[in-house]
Amino acid sequence: MTNDILIAVLLLSPLSGFLINGVFVKQNNRHSVLAGGIATLASGISFLCALVLFLTLTHQGEESAIHTAFLHWLNVGGFKADIAFNVDPISGIMILIITGVGSLIHLYSVGYMSHDPKPAKFFSYLNLFLFNMLVLVLGDNLLLMFVGWEGVGLCSYLLIGFWYEDPEKAAAGMKAFVVNRIGDAGFLLGLFMIFLNFHSVEFHELSKMTFTPEAGFWGPITIATLCLFIGATGKSAQIPLFVWLPDAMAGPTPVSALIHAATMVTAGIYMIVRLNFIFVAAPTTMGVIAVVGAATALFAASIGLFQNDIKKILAYSTVSQLGYMFLGVGVGAFSAGFFHLMTHAFFKALMFLGAGSVIHGMHHEQDVRKMGGLRKKMPVTYYTFLMGWLAIIGTPMFSGFFSKDEILWRAYSSPLGSKTLWLCGVAGAVMTAFYMTRLMALTFWGESRVDKSVKVHESPLTMTLPLMVLAVLSLVGGWVGIPHTMGSIAGVPNIFEEWLHHSVHDVEALGSVIEEWSTMGISVALAALSATLAYTLYVRSPEIIPGLMARFRVLHNLISNKYYVDEAYFKIIVDPIVMMSRGLWAYLDVRVVDRTTYLLTDVVRGTGANLRLMVNGNVQQYAVYIVFGIILTLSFLFMR
């Protein structure tokens, strides 16, 4: 099978699953296994194609790429964009993550959505999402990337608001759609700026150009990259456009795992890594990215401290972890940021699916205050979730440790980094260890607070098998990126960094080996202390908590209410726009547009009624009209 056919099957397989489930499979829960089987098979075929393409790439070498052009799309006034796809070291990793983790989530969904009345619709949306995400990462130009970018935005709206009969869930889908449109406008402006200044939107042509680093804020590269970053803040939920992601937990839990862990929210990181050769020429933009990433990591982690909805805790954790990725790419550590994208896909998908298993076993209960002691009743879910917890808090030798500490080290040692950025990252890691341990304690450890009427049960194999696979990846997934400082002791290379060496141009770190070990030790030690504190408070001495909450009531209320960001957005932005829109409707639309339309209608109808009187069948009257017309014509001719 040729590479062209492999890429075609890779893309068309989930698209076919979307069409089959959407058109031919009936919408009732009796067909949930059939619909899930078709969708899982479609995503599995895509994964096999992605694996073969990746292995082909490894044999060709990391400098090579597999390029396929299916047809010429646009060639107008120098603007050229083809329907063409490119598998290289960057996109090769992404398609493995998207299709591999995506297939596990599809399999998990077979069990999770078994009682839903519209499973075929759900699985068709999942497959369509997978197709658009593959278009986004494989497209060989910015315009085709934008097609996939918009496609995943549409699918996220459909999936987040899947249970649209509930007004709250429908509003969450709409919120995600609107906020992402703001970011997408920035992406389009960045695309236009790049074409106007560099006369191409094709990645391989842009990569051959020489971009001179700009000083200042108003250079064309800086403005273009800032616009693209606005797009990234929308899609990847960074300050100020992060507000849609926590509400997006209204969708089915597999959607949270697919969209908010492994795929859509990482699109902004992927775009920056793909265009790293342009972004590195805009130091101002890089600084903005690093600051926003560090601020988001810290801000979202603090909100996660006191959330009680198990999915909302993971949602703010996702926003925080995405902040770490932006911190990494912002200080020029593109490989480290991309590496954290991969490891995060493993452990966060695991934790979202684990949370779904808990919700399924608890009969749709999501409040961690009504759980506790589930370790014995849901052992598979517990031990797999435990692996995700160990990974996300940065336990040495787990995947999150290698990627997170690499980012912190680069923030400390990079010429584009600073000690302040490093401290923000460490503080975020400390809070992450606390709220994730709190989540473990309230859900699985301690005394049971489950209502006696709830019969807790372990999830079926279709749900627990993906958890087991992701648990293994949460442990070993980071071993391909062991830092040189650690790897040199055992003679193990940093495989991930070497793989990206020719595609990604990182800014070199300036610190010493002693400093690297020291910063690593500090972050690990502080995270361990934070986790111990959370365990003590929520398992061993929970009676202390009410007193602490009363003592710091104002601060606790501020954080637990998410700093009232949503309320502020509504008061400052949403409500004024709604009021202005109502005013424009009442005064401009009703009083001007409608009245003008009605007046013109009356004029036309009146004129028609009068003209109708002239057409009465009277031949003598018609003769008078003809004579009158002749006189007018002759008068006009003689006057000339």
3D architecture notes:
The chain is mainly alpha-helical. The protein has three domains: 1-140; 160-555, no CATH class; 565-639. The chain has helices at residues 3-23, 32-60, 89-112, 119-138, 142-160, 167-198, 203-207, 220-235, 244-247, 253-262, 267-274, 276-279, 283-304, 310-330, 334-361, 374-377, 379-392, 399-413, 419-443, 461-476, 484-490, 495-499, 513-540, 544-551, 553-560, 565-614, 619-639, and strands spanning 66-76, 79-87. Strands 1-2 form a two-stranded antiparallel ribbon. The longest helix is centred in the last third of the chain and has 50 residues, at 565-614. The N and C termini lie far apart (80 Å).
Rounded radius of gyration (Å) = 29 Å
Largest sheet: 2 strands, antiparallel
**SSE order in H/E notation?**
HHEEHHHHHHHHHHHHHHHHHHHHHHHHH
Structural class: mainly alpha
Features:
two-stranded antiparallel sheet, about 650 residues, globular, mainly alpha, about 70% helix
Brief write-up:
With 640 residues, the chain is mainly α.
Summarize the helices and strands and which ones pair or pack:
Blueprint: H1 3-23, H2 32-60, E1 66-76, E2 79-87, H3 89-112, H4 119-138, H5 142-160, H6 167-198, H7 203-207, H8 220-235, H9 244-247, H10 253-262, H11 267-274, H12 276-279, H13 283-304, H14 310-330, H15 334-361, H16 374-377, H17 379-392, H18 399-413, H19 419-443, H20 461-476, H21 484-490, H22 495-499, H23 513-540, H24 544-551, H25 553-560, H26 565-614, H27 619-639
Antiparallel strand pairs: 1-2
Helix pairs in contact: 1-2, 1-4, 2-3, 2-4, 3-4, 3-10, 3-15, 3-20, 4-5, 5-6, 6-8, 8-11, 8-13, 10-15, 11-15, 13-14, 13-19, 14-15, 14-18, 14-19, 15-17, 15-18, 15-20, 17-20, 18-19, 18-23, 19-23
